[in-house]
Amino acid sequence: MSSAKIKTGIFVLMFFVIASNIAFATADISASSPSVENINLNGKWSSLLFGDVFLEQTDNRVTGTYRYTNDEDITKDGEIKGVIQGRTILGKWWERPSGGGRPKGRIGEEAQGDLEWNISNNDRTLSGWYREEGDQEKHEWDLER
Fold first, then answer.
1. What's the DSSP call for residue 133?
2. What's the pTM?
3. Residue 23, φ and ψ in degrees, nearest 5
4. What pLDDT digit, counting tens, does each position of 94-140 carry?
5. Which of 23, 36, 55, 114 could form a cystine bridge with 64, CB 3.0-4.6 A?
6. Is residue 117 within 8 Å of residue 143, measured between CB atoms?
7. Contact criterion met (CB below 8 Å) for 97 and 74
8. Which DSSP helix (H) or strand (E) runs through 114?
């Protein structure tokens, strides 16, 4: 057998090994990625704690905003970023005092932490919790539409 035929045979064999590994890796990634095609979280949600929350979903990522006035009459702007895993959202929240016409800018403290919401089967309720960074205690935070 000539060396050209051996080199061609080795090349063909390597091609099939590489192609089969790529196909296996692609199948493995799609099998482990959560399917969110039937979940739609876009829009306005209501919360007893913080009023209206506006969520936007892109694939398995969720972002959101909210604004509320606390017991000390300080208006706060909040932001949410999370990832959908199965029917659960795991995320982070940040809030800061709104500048809202105050002469010296923002008054009050900034805060941030974790959140987790379970998505109901009809996509109309998010049940879960939030906690401030550094705290172990979780506080109930549910949304509905």
1. T
2. 0.70
3. -60, -40
4. 999 986 544 455 556 899 999 999 999 999 999 999 999 999 999 99
5. 55
6. yes
7. yes
8. strand 111-119
Q: Which long-range contacts (CB under 8 A, 24 or more apart) does 5-10 make?
A: none
Block residue for tokens 């007893």: 48
Cα–Cα distances (Å) from 10 to 2, 5, 7, in that order, read: 13, 9, 5
pLDDT digits (tens, 9 = 90+) for 15-32: 443 444 444 333 333 333
Provide the residue count of the chain: 145
65 in Cβ contact with 59 (< 8 Å): no
Taking the C-alpha atoms of residue 28 and residue 19, their distance in angstroms, rounded to an integer, is: 14
Nearest-CA neighbor of 142 among 62, 59, 54, 45? 45
Burial of 17 (0-12, 13-18, 19+ CB in 10 A): exposed
In this structure, is the dihedral angle defined by the CA atoms of residues 45, 47, 50 and 52, taken in order, positive or negative?
positive
